[in-house]
Amino acid sequence: MTLRRFSTSNITSGTKLHKLWDGETFPGYFESIATILGTGSNTEINFTNIPQMYSHLQIRGYSLASASNEDVLVRLGNGTIDTGSNYSFHEMRGVGNGGPSSTSFSNQAFMYAGSNTGSTTYPYVFIVDILDYKNTNKYKTIKVLSGTDRNANNTTGTVSLFSGNWRNSSAIDTIRLYVPSGYFNSGSHFALYGIRSA
Amino acid sequence: MTEVLMKTIVDCATGEVKSVPLTPAEIAQRDQDAAAIAAQKAAEEEAAAAKAALKESAKAKLVAGEPLTAEEAAVLVI
User: Which of A125, A126, A184, B46 has its CA 20 to 30 A from that of B64?
Assistant: First the structure.
């Protein structure tokens, strides 16, 4: 029989410290941590006290923001969000049916997570991978794949690939997604997942 | 009516979700970020326009059989 530790609670709290594995049910390797919804007035989404029990994190965003061509930005932190110029990013973006363009920026106060169409019906979707988020021996690198389409071939379809770096070796326990103008419309949602190593 | 900017905070350890107004400092930071992004986008557009102009110039010179500059050659060679 195999024992697996599922909780950091102890017996004095009234919660079992260990549970028995039935030998058949697998614990999730890709687990939902939290999901936040757009309210029509929130401009920031903050995940705090992120558990340090996973190997990697992933955010799946579905953004319906009020402002068109407004980017969704991401900041990281340990305890508090780092708003300093400690980020850099590189992007490759294709808009409409034009060729891709690429650019990079150093010493920024944020990284990109996605963009917005300013529509309440055409969302901008993105997936942010934050690898090795609790490793304290290196800076943190993220990768973002995002895009949208509006059934208009030449103008409004966009696909983007971003990489980003936070020059801090602290474990990440807080993440902020935000738009610098406007707000997240109702219908937006942002889900944080934890990925365990096999 | 003045728009009240809110932030949503979820405590992933407890699941508690709360919504609180942005502080004046956070609103100032937000304005600063918006300005930085506008500057970045302007830089991107300027660079894209310059590259497109270089390509057009290189194409025209190729058709006319004229020598290309190093920059024009660079945008044509992958």
Answer: B46
